[in-house]
Amino acid sequence: MSYVFDTSALIGAWVRTYPPDLFPRVWEEMDALATDGRLLVPEEVLEELGKQDDELLAWVKARAEAMVVPTTRAMMLEARAVLVDHPHLTKTGTGRGKADPFVIALAALRDFPVVTQEQGGSASKPRIPYVCGERGVDCMSALDVIRTEGWRF
Q1: Which domains does the chain have, with CATH numbers?
Q2: pLDDT, one tens digit for every residue, the chain (153 residues)
Q3: What is residue 125's DSSP assignment?
Q4: Whole-angstrom Cα distance, residue 84 to residue 78?
Q5: CA–CA dist 153, 148 (Å, integer)
Q6: What's the burial of 75, exposed, middle or buried (CB within 10 Å: 0-12/13-18/19+)?
Q7: Overall pTM > 0.90
């Protein structure tokens, strides 16, 4: 299976849940997913990660050729459709959540699940899991990826 990761899933796993200094095997497995082209992010996620010039950004950049998907016309049209249906998914003027519609668009176009740390959401306060549900896109956590892949540590 292949996955489209949201910025929050990468940061949450790297910083809070599976930091590489304590869970190096998780990141070896993530590396294998990335180099196999099975862990994808739209280029907008790379831009969001670029706000913090840190080791996670370096990790993604080192695998960018295999995992960062350039924005295509089809992605732009799908992201626009997401925002037409859920205009409050991003915070206008703040840059917050800028990648979210592109994450959902890429997942929808490839028929891959979205991996996010976000939870919940509603019509008035949409978040990735809510919007994915509305659009028929599967959504999961980094832990779900570990279980789906059958990794054991």
Answers
A1: 3-149 (3.40.50.1010)
A2: 999 999 999 999 999 999 999 999 999 999 999 999 999 999 999 999 998 879 999 999 999 999 999 999 999 999 999 999 999 998 765 556 799 999 999 999 999 999 999 999 999 899 999 999 999 999 999 999 999 999 998
A3: S
A4: 10
A5: 14
A6: buried
A7: yes
